[in-house]
Specification:
Elements (H helix, E strand, L loop, with lengths): L3 E5 L11 E2 L3 E5 L3 H8 L4 E7 L2 E6 L3 E5 L5 E5 L4 E7 L5 E7 L7 E10 L5 E8 L6 E6 L5 E6 L4 E5 L11 E2 L9 E8 L2 E7 L4 E5 L8 E5 L8 E3 L7 E4 L4 E4 L4 E7 L2 E8 L2 E9 L19 E9 L4 E8 L2 E7 L2 E6 L4 E6 L2 H10 L3 H10 L4 H18 L2 H9 L7 H5 L8 H13 L5 H13 L3 H8 L10 H11 L1 H10 L3 H12 L2 H10 L2 H18 L1 H17 L23 H9 L10 H17 L3 H17 L7 H10 L3 H10 L3 H10 L3 H11 L5 H12 L8 H11 L4 H10 L9 H41 L20 E3 L5 E3 H7 L10 H17 L3 H10 L3 H10 L6 H11 L6 E3 L16 H4 L43
Parallel strand pairs: 2-27
Antiparallel strand pairs: 1-23, 3-30, 4-5, 5-6, 6-7, 8-9, 9-10, 10-11, 12-13, 13-14, 14-15, 16-17, 17-18, 18-19, 20-21, 21-22, 22-23, 24-25, 25-26, 26-27, 28-29, 29-30, 31-32, 31-33
Helix pairs in contact: 2-3, 3-4, 4-5, 5-7, 7-8, 8-10, 10-11, 11-12, 12-13, 12-14, 13-14, 14-15, 16-17, 17-18, 17-19, 18-20, 19-20, 20-21, 21-22, 21-23, 23-24
Length: about 1000
């Protein structure tokens, strides 16, 4: 039986490990191998390589054979003598060979491009360099990026080529330090983008060169153990190693030091790497065995030598394939398979079985642990991995290994339904395993409320309160569970743990609930709430406010004062929505008005921030306290407090109508008086005083606000006329104010006094005396005005008659415009104004109007026209009539302005009596006799004159009217003796 031992090297002492053996490869003997052997013929294969879709074999006749995937062979001659070494780049079509054209001469390095062919379909040689050393080259390696290449010689020298292999034809190699022994293996390893190392092995040592530097390549000796030819390989990957094979073991090396060691017995002849597998070809003596022994036994002459090939899965620590063959020359990985080339030219293929087939074999042998490792190594689907874990757990559960089964079931969390596992461990004897699984379920964050309840019940049944507390309080932050359910379960068994859990996870509501319902520690609950943030405190106190008010009212009110104070003291507007407002807690104190008033008085310094509802509530409960209070001094104090609140509160924030309703309900007179005065509702205030029979208050109100609203005296007077209890001594003051402000007509006042049953003529003696005296003065004044107007009327009539019947003498010597001496030509008007002709033309707006009299006449005519328009506004007249205190005087005024007369009749009368204002032009030549013009109207007549519509005094409104010839002043012949200008002609 072959034993494989794995260990990490620690001073070359290896720890033994027994590996399992499987058969995960199938060998296929190629039927076309005869074609390959026939192509090669009797030539000896000297070198092999693979990559970029080819298997490459070179022989001692200088030929290179390229084998495709369909086993078609293409041969071309590379050298005239022999091909010594070759390497095919993995990701490039570049093939590098070293050979001889003549025996015993320096070797030649050639670089071939397999994708470029000449006319004979032979690959083109893009570089040919003759090596400077005469020693035989033993190893060849190149990087896939074609920038580095190294050649090892039999004397221990190493030639390092830098630069592009296909272009730098003249680049000279750099010779590294001679090692004194033939080079048996080399490999390049890239640590970073610009950092490369070269591993080199000889028969007795392993070293590495740092080939990054251009000038100097430092060497580091890694081990004093070497290997033979083809017994070294570089493992690719993040944890890659450089491996060498010795008869006793396989040693691994990193860039800095030695790595692990795999102890495998047998004489190794080939070491190769394929995917994640290490392929070992070794010689064995004796009968063919199916395994590899730890060390070789003593050789006997009768033993048969055989060659075995072993495939090791190092990561999963088992042998996946082993077989015995004869004359193995090389093992070439390509096209996802392994190809075994014998010395006779036959080619066999090792094909790896698919993963499902491998797992099926492992499941049959109950090797679930191996199956898991293999599936992980090949990046198996996560859901399929879960199924493997489930089967593994079921297998261990069947064997009775419940703890091991739970370990496997834990790996299925998140994919496998937890109820599948929980059902298996519901028996009380498996409660430990169930607890372990539930704990892991919570740690993964996949637990539900039911799982949390079940876990806590398991802790309770196991009496593991310490584990429960550790899980709750000192738990890993990665563990997640339903805290509310956990607290609910702990409340039944361990209230202390429930409190600790609620406090740790900020379940403030549950923490307060436990204190109030389970422990009845109301004060402690309030203290805990005080430690919370404002938002949390508000939320919690609202939830349990009724309980606190019922049990600790004083402490609760004190806490609410502190809590709500932040609403007024904070300056952050964004947080104002989350702060506690006094309105939020008013409903708690509605049954205790004194307590509510005390609570709200704490915030009276911030009345400007109070809401309307809060202010109304405060006033309402102050009124309740005032109503129920018997101490007169305290009642007065409350009255002042309410009035001060109303005075200091913002008008917009105080609903006066609501306060008025409250004050009326509680018969709180000061507030009613203030609100009426504040809102300037003086008439309502008077009615309120009169409804209380407070006549003195009503009179005082009239005295204060009578100037603003004089009708208040009328309201009091009307009440006095019908109220039998009205004090008579106040009537005199009322009548004096009515008379002084002319609030009522004398007729209405006397009529009302006559109808009153309370007052007699003696109470109104002073008023009547004053009234009659004032009327007498008015009559005398009106009589004087009548006499004056009659006198003015007679004068006007005399003037008009004079203008109509007598000649007008113009005696003006100076111009009324420029005040200079008059010169001819000049213009004279009947109004005794005279002008230079050029002055008249400059200042006159019309040829018929006197410039000096035009503004006054125009103003008079506008007034007449306006008065004519006013009389059409019947609605305005009625409105004035309703508002007037003395309607008779208003009507008299309208009559006096002739606003009730027919305007057309007045205009006709005016037209008959008015002459056209025509100018008289005085020139050296004879002029037309001047026409009379009406004199300038006086301001007195401007009020009573109707608007002039026609300026022609001879036009009649009625065409049928007969002309009165007696009114014509020019009917008689003109007396030339009366002409003052006759001598000038």
């Amino acid at each position: 039986m072959v034993v494989v031992i794995f260990s990490y090297r620690i001073d070359y002492r290896c720890c033994r490990y027994r590996w399992r053996k499987f058969n995960f490869f199938d060998i296929i003997h190629n039927a076309d191998s005869k074609k390959i052997s026939e192509t090669i013929g009797n030539s000896k294969i000297t070198s092999t390589s693979s990559g970029h879709g080819h298997l490459v074999t070179c022989d001692d006749d200088g030929l290179v054979h390229l084998i495709t995937r369909t086993f078609q062979v293409t041969t071309f001659r590379a050298y005239q003598s022999v091909v010594l070494l070759s390497t095919q780049l993995q990701y490039s079509s570049i093939l590098v060979t070293i050979g001889e054209d003549e025996p015993n001469t320096n070797s030649i390095l050639k670089v071939w491009d397999l994708e470029r062919r000449d006319r004979q379909s032979t690959p083109i040689c893009i570089r040919s360099t003759k090596l400077s050393k005469s020693e035989k080259p033993t190893t060849l390696c190149a990087t896939d990026n074609r920038l580095l290449m190294a050649i090892g010689f039999a004397d221990g020298c190493i030639a390092l080529f830098k630069g592009d292999l296909s272009r730098d034809r003249n680049s000279k190699p750099k010779m590294l330090k001679e090692l004194g022994q033939g080079i048996t293996g080399m490999a390049f390893k890239c640590i970073s983008k610009d950092q490369w190392y070269l591993f080199v092995s000889t028969a007795s040592s392993v070293q590495q060169f740092n080939v990054t530097s251009k000038d100097f390549c430092p060497m580091t000796v890694l081990d004093a153990v070497g290997c033979d030819f083809k017994c070294s390989v570089l493992v690719n990957g993040p944890d890659s190693h450089f491996m060498i094979a010795k008869e006793d073991a396989i040693y691994c090396y990193t860039v800095d030091s030695r790595g692990p060691c795999y102890v495998v017995g047998g004489q190794k002849i080939i070491l190769q790497w394929f995917r994640n597998y290490l392929i070992i070809v070794s010689k064995e003596r004796g009968k063919p065995l199916n395994a590899i022994t730890v060390s070789t036994t003593t050789k006997h002459s009768d033993e048969i030598e055989s060659i075995s090939i072993t495939v090791l899965d190092i990561q999963n620590k088992f042998i996946i394939y082993t077989t015995t063959m004869q004359d193995i020359l090389s093992v070439l990985p390509e096209w996802g398979s392994l190809y075994i080339l014998t010395t006779k030219g036959s080619l066999s293929q090792l094909i790896e079985k698919d993963l499902q087939s491998k797992l099926t074999v492992l499941f049959k042998k109950n090797l679930y642990d191996v199956a898991v490792r293999m599936a992980k190594c090949q990046q198996y689907d996560s859901q399929a991995l879960v199924d493997i874990f489930r089967q593994y757990g079921d297998h261990l559960y069947t064997k009775g290994d419940h703890s091991g089964a739970v370990e496997q079931y834990i790996k299925t969390i998140g994919k496998l339904e937890p109820s599948y596992v929980i059902k298996k461990f519901l028996d009380s004897q498996y409660i430990d395993s169930l607890t372990t699984y539930l704990h892991a379920l919570h740690k993964s964050g996949s637990a539900t409320k039911d799982h949390t309840t079940l876990l806590f019940n398991c802790y309770s049944k196991l009496n593991s309160l310490d584990k429960l507390q550790e899980f709750i309080v000192i738990k890993d932050e990665n563990i997640d569970f339903d805290v509310d359910v956990a607290i609910k379960v702990c409340r039944q068994s361990s209230p202390e743990n429930a409190l600790a859990l609620a406090e740790k996870h900020n379940r403030h509501s549950l923490y307060i609930k436990i204190l109030l319902e389970d422990r009845h520690e109301y004060t402690s609950a309030l203290e805990y709430i005080e430690k919370l943030s404002i938002d949390q405190s508000v939320q919690t106190i609202k939830q349990y406010s009724n309980v606190f008010i019922e049990n600790v009212p004083k402490e609760t009110v004190s806490f609410l004062k502190k809590l709500c104070s932040t609403w007024y003291t904070t300056t952050n507007v964004d947080l104002s929505g989350n702060l506690a407002q006094p309105e939020d807690f008013i409903y708690l104190l509605l049954d205790d008005s004194e307590c509510l008033v005390d609570f709200l008085e704490h915030f009276d310094n911030f009345l400007d921030k109070w809401s309307t509802s809060l202010l109304n509530t405060y006033i309402e409960h102050c009124l309740i306290v005032w109503k129920n209070e018997n101490n007169q001094e305290y009642r007065s104090k409350i009255e002042k407090k309410i009035i001060n609140i109303l005075q200091s509160a913002d008008i917009k924030m105080c609903d006066h109508y609501q306060v008025l309703i409250l004050a009326t309900s509680f018969e709180f007179k000061p507030a009613i008086v203030y609100i009426f005065e504040h809102n300037k509702q003086y008439s309502k205030l008077i009615r309120y005083f009169l409804s209380l029979n407070d006549y003195i208050g009503a009179i005082e109100c009239c005295r204060r606000y009578g100037q603003v609203e004089p009708k208040l005296w009328i309201l009091v007077f009307n009440t006095a006329m019908v109220d039998d209890m009205f004090p008579p001594f106040m009537l005199e003051e009322i009548l004096n104010e009515i008379e002084k402000k002319s609030l009522l007509s004398a007729h209405f006042t006397i009529t009302s006094l006559a109808k009153s049953k309370t007052f007699n003529i003696g109470h109104a003696r002073a008023y009547l005396s004053s009234l009659f005296g004032a009327e007498k003065k008015i009559l005398e004044k009106d009589k004087e005005m009548v006499d004056k107007y009659q006198k003015d009327t007679e004068n006007l009539k005399h003037t008009i008659e004079k203008l109509k019947n007598c000649a007008v003498v113009f005696q003006g010597l100076r111009c009324s415009a420029c005040n200079n001496q008059l010169e001819l030509p000049s213009i004279h008007f009947m109004c005794q104004h005279s002008y230079h002709q050029h002055c008249f033309q400059a200042f006159s707006e019309s040829d018929d109007d006197c410039p000096a009299c035009t503004p006054n006449n125009k103003q008079i005519m506008d007034i007449i026209r306006t008065q004519g328009q006013i009389k059409d506004y019947n609605k305005e007249f009625h409105n004035q009539l309703e508002r007037a205190t003395d309607c008779f005087s208003l009507i008299s005024e309208y009559f006096g302005r002739c606003l009730f007369d027919d305007l057309s009749i007045a205009e006709n009368e005016l037209a008959k009596s008015k002459l056209v204002s025509s100018p008289v032009v005085l020139t050296p030549k004879p002029v037309v006799p001047a026409v009379q013009t009406p004199p300038r109207l006086s301001p007195i007549l401007s009020v009573h004159t109707i608007q002039q519509q026609n300026t022609n005094p001879f036009d009649e409104d009625d065409d049928n009217m007969e002309y009165d010839d007696n009114k014509n002043p020019f009917k008689d012949e003109y007396d030339e003796s009366k002409n003052p200008f006759a001598d000038d002609i």
